[in-house]
Amino acid sequence: ALVGLTGFIIITLFVFGGALIVPFDLYSSDNALRNLPPNMSYLRYPKELDSVGAEQIVSGRSFSAAIDSNGKVHVWGVDQSNLKQLPSALTSSRIVKLATGDRHMLALNEAGDVILWGHNNHRQAEVPVELAGVFRLQRIVNIGGGDLYSAVLTERGNIYVWGATLANRLNLVPPQFQGRIIDFATSTSSILLLLDDNTIGYMGTPGTQLATIPEYLTNGDVKITQIAASVRSGLAIDENGGLHGWGDAIGGMLDFPEPIASGSVRIVEIEAGRNYFTAVDSEGNAYAWGVNNYGQTNIPTAVTNARVTNVFSGFYQNYAVTEDGAIHAWGNKGFILGSDGSGRDMLTRLIHGGRVTMTVGAVAVLISTLIGVTVGMISGFYGKWIDNVLMRFGEIINSFPFLPLAITLSAFIGGRLSQTERILMIMVILGVISWPGLSRLVRGQILAEREKDFVMAARALGIRSRVIIVRHILPNVINIVIVSMTLSYAGSLLTEAGLSFLGFGVVPPSPSWGNMLTGSQGTDIIELYWWRWVLPAIAVLMTALSVNLIGDGLREAMDPKGNEK
Question: Are 140 and 152 in contact (CB under 8 A)?
Fold first, then answer.
């Protein structure tokens, strides 16, 4: 019982205390971060880089890579695509540039050859046969990658894209741009182009927010020297160091920091993450703004107090190199319990899902206890026809099968209810249907207690029946009520989890331990992504077990015959 009590206290503090500390956004998700294993090493770069220096750092969804001053490549973080198994071509030549997609990488050596490796489900990590001859004739000068695609720029100003390019139309380079491109910036499914007349072009899915480039940036009114692209927003530096942004303003993407907005500083470098931007001005000051769900815009004090020479951003990881050669990292460190199939943090969903599951069970038990104790006391104390009617009614309620009833109600009215109303419905149904067992236990105890001398004395003194039941009899049966509550609570937890698992309880995106298990039924998930089903299963198991241990201990402690022994 003590072990169970300790476990239950720990689980309660984890769930309800954690819910006060860990923020929760019901609709926050990122498919690029889906199914990542428990790990907190995304920002732990090799310490060797501190001594040899980093010329360039790029980041994918859960990994980063760097070129040191000797042209050697280093990879760290979570490796799910064999990225740490470097191709032999990387070690036999000096690398001058790196680029990354979500799960694959590109490298450019000093001879102008492109080297690819990593995830290759759309052939994004290999040079197409039809382009191999082109690259022998046209030297590659720049490389880039996005979600499931790769891109290269040749010395003749031509860009070539391959991989998953049909849906986003990246295989169709606008003819007015080809041959005029001097630089490009990749987004998830689009590419911004810097043209030879210092204007900006766009290629990719038509009608996106990234495609809404202001006319003055495309007609030559402003000379652009550098561009950067997030998922839905673009950024450009003009020849005077001023910034220009467009696209989706969500999360403050277009709200420049005050020194930049006022034009008091000259920007010399910009970088884009998934949904944020970073910049460095001519004085070596670093800036970051936009969505901050992983701390990617929280620049460390060590960076703000130093002169920054370079900043590198990608996905949700950032690295700044200061004047003394030191590297500082901030942003997404990883997921301590992994991520689910929608890129959501498992720890956050376990905490807030547990709050739903444990609250549903607790409220259902309170409802059933209130009804059961009331009916049992009235039935046992008054007896006769009242006892007969109440017990027969209890038997009728007890005959209703809970799961079919809950499933039927969910099918008929579930779609008309909000998530809160749906949870309330589950709690009420659980409570209203599960009281008959407790009422019969209480009735049996009342039948024995009402014949005792203290009850007869109270009646002789003219004390009201209601007062006798509540003040004199109830304290003598409260031990049975407490034990029943603890054991029923464990059953309610399992019932709610089972309902949500079947899809008739709490429905996504709202989490509960049950519906977290629902999304983990596939054989591939069971085999490859163990944390998605093991963690919620352990949470349900440990909570139910700890409550059952408490109930068993209370039953032993409150058993008069056990005390006599």
Answer: yes
